[in-house]
Design goal:
It is built from 19 helices and 19 strands. With about 550 residues, the chain is α/β, with parallel strands linked by helices. It has four domains: about 160 residues, 3-Layer(aba) Sandwich (Alpha-D-Glucose-1,6-Bisphosphate, Chain A, domain 3), CATH 3.40.120.10; about 110 residues, Alpha-D-Glucose-1,6-Bisphosphate, subunit A, domain 3 (Alpha-D-Glucose-1,6-Bisphosphate, Chain A, domain 3), CATH 3.40.120; about 130 residues, no CATH class; about 80 residues, Alpha-D-phosphohexomutase, C-terminal domain (TATA-Binding Protein), CATH 3.30.310.50. The strands form five sheets. The protein has a five-stranded mixed sheet, sandwiched between helices. Helix 1 packs across helix 4 and helix 3 runs antiparallel to helix 4. The protein starts with a helix and ends with a helix.
Length: about 550
C-alpha cells in the first residue's frame, strides 16, 4: 500500500468526526446489513460508505452499491446494505472489518483500522485508483438524510464518486450494479423495459390452446406502503393480460410502511393485511415487503374470516421448478436426444416445510440444504446451470449460469419453428432468465414470473395451493446463558454440541408421525431457536415443547 498522504488521512478523520459512535451503541453487519432506529444510524451509514468505497478500489474501480433501507422493519427503523460488484451481497470476508469500522470509538481508531486493512488487502489509498458507488434509498423519512451521510463516507476515500440512482427497490439497485459491471444498460428505465418485455414474451409463448379468463387476469397487490407498490404503479400500464390493483401502494397519506401489511406480516400472521376484506374472496392476492425483495401470495378464504390461504416461498419455488422442469424435459426428451444437458438444482434451508422438500424429491430433483440465510442459498445455487432457491419468507430467485444461457441462445438459433421442435421451450427459458432478477430476490420480477407461469399452465390459485399440503409447524425460543454452546452440522439440521442433545431430539421425533425437529443458535441474541413439524398442529406443538425442555435443562440458566 502506498502512503495515502495527508489529504486521505484528513478526509477520514473529518468524516469520522462528523458522526461519532454514541456511548453504548453497537452495530453488527449481518445478512440485512446494519439496522437500528433511523435516528441512530448515521455513524454506521457513514462508515458503510467508507467500506463501499474501499471495496470498489479493491475491485479495480468496479461499481459497488449501497442502499439505505430497513426492508420489513417498522418505519422508524433504517439500515444500510452494501451490494458487491457481481450484484450480490457484500463478500462475507469483509463483514468483520465492517463491524470493526462501524464500532471504532474515535476518529483516530477508525483511521488506523482503515490503514491497516488497506495494507492487509493491498488497497492503494490516496486517489491513485478511482472508485464508484451507486446509491439508492427507500421511502423512509430518515432516508434522504442518511443518503447524504453515506455520500460523506464515500467521499472520505479520495478518488471515490457517489452516484445517486434515486428512490429504488433494493433489488433494482442490485440489478443495476450487476448490469453496470457487465457493460450492460443499467438505468431504472432499462430495468423496467427488461422485465416488462420478457414478461410479454413469456405470455406470447403461452400454448395456443390455453386462453385466459377475466378472473385469472385480476391480481390485487399489497405494496406494504413501501417503494415496491409505487414502482408497480409505474409499470402497470405496460403489463398485458394482467389487471393489477395496488393497495397499500406507498402513496403519500395512504398508510404507514409495514404497519399491519407487507409480506413479512402476511407470512408470519397468516391474516389479511390492512385494506383487504370480504369483497376480495376468490381473487388472487400478492404481498411485497417494504423494499420489495420478498413476495408471498394469499387468498381471502371467507367473507367472515380474517385468516388467509398462504402461498409462501416454498410453494413459489415449487411452481417455478415445475415450469422449468417441463421445458427441460421436452428439450431433452427422447425425440430430441438430450439437446441441452442441464444440472438443475434446488436449494433450501432447514426451515423449508418438509412437505415441499418431499414434493421436490418425488419429482426426481436434486435438493440440497445450506445454513439459514440468503447469502448461503445464493452461493450454493450458483453451482448449478439453473439453481432455484427460496426461503419460506418469500425471498429467493432462479439463477441461470452464464455458460448455460450461452448454450441456450445457441440452441434457439439452431432450432426451427417446425412442429415438434422444442424451440418454444428454449425461448421460454431464455425469457425466464431475462425476467427473474439474477442478482437477488425481487418481488416485482418474481410476481411477474408467477403470473406468467400460472397463465401458461392455466392454473387457478387453488390449483397452485393443491400442489401439496404443508405440514403443521411450531417455532419456539429458549433463553440460554450462552448460545454458542450449540454447534450444528448438516446445514443446521443436526446438533453436534453439546454431546447427547441430538440423541434426545431423535428420541422425541420418533414418537410423532411426520415428525422433524432441529435447534439452532440465534445469530443476534442468547436464545436457541426450536423448529418442529408433525402431522397435526397439536403434535408439532408438543414436539417443539418437548425438545425445548431438553434444551432448557442442558443449556438454560442455572
Amino acid at each position: 500500500m502506498a502512503d495515502p498522504g495527508g489529504s486521505q488521512r484528513t478526509a477520514l478523520l473529518a468524516a469520522a468526526s462528523l458522526f461519532p459512535v454514541p456511548d453504548g451503541a453497537t452495530f453488527s453487519y449481518g445478512t440485512a446489513g446494519f439496522r437500528a432506529d433511523g435516528s441512530t444510524m448515521a455513524p454506521a451509514v457513514c462508515r458503510a460508505g467508507i467500506v463501499a468505497a474501499l471495496r470498489s478500489v479493491k475491485l479495480g474501480g468496479a461499481a459497488v452499491g449501497l442502499v439505505i433501507t430497513a426492508s420489513h422493519n417498522p418505519v422508524g427503523d433504517n439500515g444500510v446494505k452494501i451490494v458487491d460488484a457481481d450484484g450480490g451481497m457484500m463478500s462475507q470476508a469483509w463483514e468483520p472489518f465492517s463491524d470493526a469500522l462501524a464500532n471504532a470509538p474515535t476518529p483516530d481508531a477508525l483511521l488506523q483500522l482503515v490503514l491497516q486493512f488497506a495494507k492487509d488487502e493491498g488497497i492503494t489509498l490516496g486517489g491513485a485508483h478511482s472508485a464508484q458507488v451507486l446509491l439508492a434509498r427507500d421511502t423512509r423519512p430518515t432516508g434522504e438524510y442518511l443518503l447524504d451521510v453515506a455520500t460523506k463516507g464515500i467521499s472520505a476515500i479520495v478518488g471515490s464518486v457517489a452516484l445517486d440512482m434515486g428512490i429504488l427497490t433494493t433489488p433494482q439497485l442490485h440489478w443495476m450494479v450487476r448490469n453496470k459491471n457487465r457493460g450492460l444498460k443499467a438505468s431504472e428505465a432499462d430495468y423496467f423495459t427488461q422485465i416488462t418485455e420478457s414478461f410479454r414474451h413469456l405470455l406470447e409463448l403461452t400454448p395456443d390452446d390455453k386462453g385466459i379468463d377475466e378472473l385469472n387476469e385480476k391480481l390485487i397487490v399489497d405494496g406494504a406502503n413501501g417503494i415496491g407498490g409505487l414502482k408497480l404503479e409505474q409499470i402497470k400500464p405496460n403489463l398485458a393480460r394482467l389487471d393489477i390493483l395496488v393497495r397499500n401502494s406507498g402513496k403519500e397519506g395512504e398508510g404507514i410502511l409495514n404497519e399491519r401489511c407487507g409480506a413479512d406480516f402476511v407470512q408470519k400472521e397468516k391474516v389479511l393485511p390492512l385494506g383487504f376484506g370480504p369483497n376480495d374472496v376468490g381473487v388472487r392476492c400478492a404481498s411485497f415487503d417494504g423494499d420489495a425483495d420478498r413476495l408471498v401470495y394469499f387468498h381471502v378464504t371467507s367473507p367472515s374470516k380474517t385468516s388467509v390461504d398462504l402461498v409462501d416461498g416454498d410453494k413459489i419455488l415449487s411452481l417455478f421448478v415445475l415450469f422449468i422442469r417441463e421445458q427441460l424435459d421436452i428439450i431433452n426428451g427422447k425425440d430430441n436426444k438430450g439437446l441441452l444437458p442441464t444440472r438443475f438444482g434446488v436449494v433450501q434451508t432447514a426451515y423449508a416445510n418438509g412437505a415441499s422438500t418431499e414434493f421436490l424429491k418425488n419429482l426426481g430433483l436434486e435438493v440440497v440444504f445450506t445454513s439459514t440465510g440468503v447469502k448461503y442459498l445464493h452461493k450454493k445455487a450458483l453451482e448449478y446451470d439453473i439453481g432455484v432457491y427460496f426461503e419460506a419468507n418469500g425471498h429467493g430467485t432462479v439463477l441461470f449460469n452464464d455458460d448455460f444461457v450461452s448454450r441456450l441462445e445457441s440452441l434457439t438459433a439452431r432450432l426451427s419453428e417446425a412442429a415438434g421442435s422444442p424451440q418454444k421451450q428454449a425461448l421460454r427459458l431464455l425469457a425466464t432468465s431475462q425476467l427473474i432478477n439474477q442478482a437477488v430476490g425481487d418481488a416485482i420480477s418474481g410476481m411477474l414470473l408467477v403470473e406468467a407461469v400460472l397463465q401458461h399452465k392455466r392454473w387457478s390459485f387453488q390449483n397452485w395451493c393443491d400442489l401439496y399440503t404443508d405440514l403443521p409447524s411450531k417455532q419456539l425460543k429458549v433463553k440460554v446463558e450462552d448460545r454458542t454452546a450449540i454447534v450444528t452440522t448438516d446445514a443446521e439440521r443436526k446438533v453436534c454440541q453439546p454431546s447427547g442433545l441430538q440423541e434426545l431430539i431423535d428420541k422425541e421425533v420418533v414418537n410423532y408421525s411426520h415428525g422433524r425437529c432441529f435447534v439452532r443458535p440465534s445469530g443476534t441474541e442468547d436464545v436457541v431457536r426450536v423448529y418442529a413439524e408433525a402431522s397435526t398442529v397439536e403434535a408439532a406443538e408438543s414436539l417443539a415443547k418437548s425438545v425445548a425442555r431438553h434444551v432448557e435443562r442442558i443449556l438454560g440458566f442455572c
